[in-house]
Write a structure and sequence with these properties.
heterodimer; A: about 150 residues; mainly alpha; Globin-like; 8 helices; globular; B: about 170 residues; 9 helices; disordered N terminus; haptoglobin binding (chain A); organic acid binding (chain A); Hemoglobin subunit beta-like (chain A)
């Protein structure tokens, strides 16, 4: 079980209460597809991903960004058992979607950068570190069902 | 590091440049002219606040990746310490200098390559951690101006920078 300090718990809940899922989710996914273009391999059915402008305005990308945020919200609501919360999602990513789990942190890093530009100075090194820890736990849980 | 030694080393090693450096120099030249101009412009803008940005990136790295602190036992790395600000400034100014002419990275970084390989011997996996922390600092400082295109260009540049820095390790 992950040991969260009071600061970390409060910080994660605070971040997720402040950010706009409709903005952050789509921005993080599109950044991932732009900065790490090989991740586009998993989104062949999404239509036009030809350049940054196309990706940023692609409605399927935006919709998927919101799906990701909803998934993360489940983890925020169950911080003491993120492992169990993501068992099904982990199996899905491993067996059906066949996503290389090394890619999970690429999206995580993009999420950190989007949240950073939203929160500016409020995203202090300590707040940032709590967020990275949260992302690491989420990524680890998503990796668990791979074999 | 005497400059004549650096020159001799450059002549000797240019013929046997490793595959990884060749690949990353190709990656650096995979930066379009627009990307190179963008990178150069951003670092020129940040040079006046080099200490602030550098210290911020270091603090983020130490907080998120505590193992990185092991390389700094000889410095006071508490927030706002003069050591932290001086060191942060050094790092940002080196990155900014490289950005002036990305095609010459191996030449510009030759002394730093030797320093990191023979004296500091920082595990190169840590370079990625500082690069990510630096990108977050840029995002906080530049906000919306740190567009996906700028982010992609900067990520590529910092990867190339790190690869060149590690070239003399083995």
């Amino acid at each position: 079980m992950v040991a969260w300090t009071d600061f970390e718990r409060a910080t994660i809940k605070d971040i997720f209460s402040k950010i706009d899922y409709e903005v952050v989710g789509p921005a993080a996914i599109s950044r991932c597809l732009i900065v790490y273009p090989w991740t586009q391999r998993y989104f062949a059915g999404f239509g036009n991903l030809y350049n940054a402008a196309a990706i940023t305005s692609n409605p399927k990308v935006a919709a998927h960004g919101k799906v990701v945020m909803q998934g993360l919200e489940k983890a925020v609501k169950n911080m003491d058992n993120i492992k169990a919360t993501f068992t099904e999602l982990s199996t899905l990513h491993s067996e059906k979607l066949q996503v290389d789990p090394d890619n999970f942190m690429l999206l995580g890093d993009c999420l950190a950068i989007v949240v950073a530009s939203q929160l500016g100075k409020d995203f202090s090194p300590e707040v940032h570190a709590a967020f990275q820890k949260f992302l690491a736990v989420v990524v680890s849980s998503l990796r668990r069902q791979y074999y | 590091m005497r400059s004549d030694n650096a020159e001799a080393e450059r002549d000797n090693t240019s013929a046997e440049r490793s595959t990884s450096t060749r690949c990353f120099l190709q990656a650096a030249t995979m930066l379009s002219k627009r990307e190179k101009d963008l990178i150069k412009e951003i670092w020129e803008r940040l040079t006046p606040v080099a200490a602030e940005i550098g210290a911020d990136a270091l603090l983020r790295m130490f907080a998120s990746y505590p193992g990185t602190k092991t390389y700094f036992s000889h410095l006071d790395i508490s927030p706002n310490s003069s050591h932290l600000l001086a060191h942060g400034k050094k790092i940002v100014l080196a990155i900014a200098e490289g950005a002036q002419d990305i095609s010459q990275l191996t030449v510009t970084l030759a002394p730093l390559q030797t320093l990191h390989a023979y004296q500091l011997r920082i595990d190169p996996r840590n370079f990625k951690l500082l690069s990510h922390s630096m990108l977050v600092s840029l995002a906080c400082y530049l906000g919306d101006e740190f567009t996906p295109v700028a982010h992609a260009a900067m990520d590529k540049y910092l990867s190339a920078f790190a690869a060149v820095l590690a070239e003399k390790y083995r």
